[in-house]
Amino acid sequence: MTVLSRRAFGTGATAAAASLLVGCSSDGGGVRTTGTASPDASSPPPRSTAGKHTSSAKSVRAVGRSVPVRLRIPALGVDTPVMRLGLASDGTVQVPPISDHDQAGWYEHSPTPGQTGPSVILGHVTVGAYGDGVFHGLSRLRRGEKIVARLENGTETEFTVTSLRTVAKADFPTDDVYGNVDRPELRLITCGGPKDETGYLDNVIAFAALTSSTTP
């Protein structure tokens, strides 16, 4: 996964979001930025094709910033540590090593889960000889199912899936995924769809909204 961008996310209404295209090779490759955009939270959402995410989940008050350390998706049997992903020296986004295909990674320049804004967590779907990745079953996730992120300070944030989209890499919905929102939301991103000699042609994106939180 590669991202050619400076710090791209923030929790403020006017924070810049990266224009990210997510591309996946068969050995676990990635996210590439082709530029930057600064969507305004007061602007109407961009038009999109059928299947654009909508939300009926009741959101709750945002929680304070704390790094995610574990992610659970009960419907998929996922219970995984979460590592931090930053930017490499060449400006690309770090991703979980292929030997850690069973772990998810939180992009540290996005809000932490439960903060206002879209928190972004990436995971492999398959990784060459290592087999299934942590998000291998992401395409089976359904609206209304739960995602729980446990934070470093002991807080547990529960999100409810509002939609799931499978999109061609060329049609990646940048504003929908990375644009500013006025409540805590979560994005889980992996690869999917058909494959060619370069790898997977699509991305699978789960959209979710914070619906509860518990503090120790």
How would you characterize this protein structure?
This protein has 216 residues and is mainly β. The chain is built from one helix and ten strands. The chain has one helix spanning 174-178; strands at 17-22, 31-37, 68-73, 78-85, 104-107, 117-122, 146-151, 156-168, 184-196, 199-214. An eight-stranded mixed barrel has the order 3-4-5-6-9-10-8-7. The protein has a two-stranded antiparallel sheet with strand order 1-2. The longest helix is centred in the C-terminal third of the chain and has 5 residues, at 174-178. The chain starts with 16 loop residues before the first strand and ends with a strand.
Q: Strands, helices and their partners?
A:
Elements lengths: L16 E6 L8 E7 L30 E6 L4 E8 L18 E4 L9 E6 L23 E6 L4 E13 L5 H5 L5 E13 L2 E16 L2
Parallel strand pairs: 4-5, 6-9
Antiparallel strand pairs: 1-2, 3-4, 3-7, 5-6, 7-8, 8-10, 9-10
